[in-house]
Amino acid sequence: MKLAIVVLSNAQADGAVEALLKAGHRVTRLASTGGLLRQGNTTLLVGAEDRDMEEILETLRRQAPGALVAILPLERYEHF
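The chain above was modelled as a monomer; its predicted structure follows.
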């Protein structure tokens, strides 16, 4: 399993979240601030099986060019 941490502009967030949800992925959306100018951003947390990560990345490439994506190994992912 993997966890994608995605930092993108607020303007890109709605389209990216909608596309990920439409494809059946679970997404957690957080407001975030950072960078030199302390501008508001959106951070997405997307937990998925390894086999789904390329689809997620392709969706993000289309919906949020310029987004920062970090992919981390995830030992366990539960949805209650």
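The radius of gyration is 12 Å.
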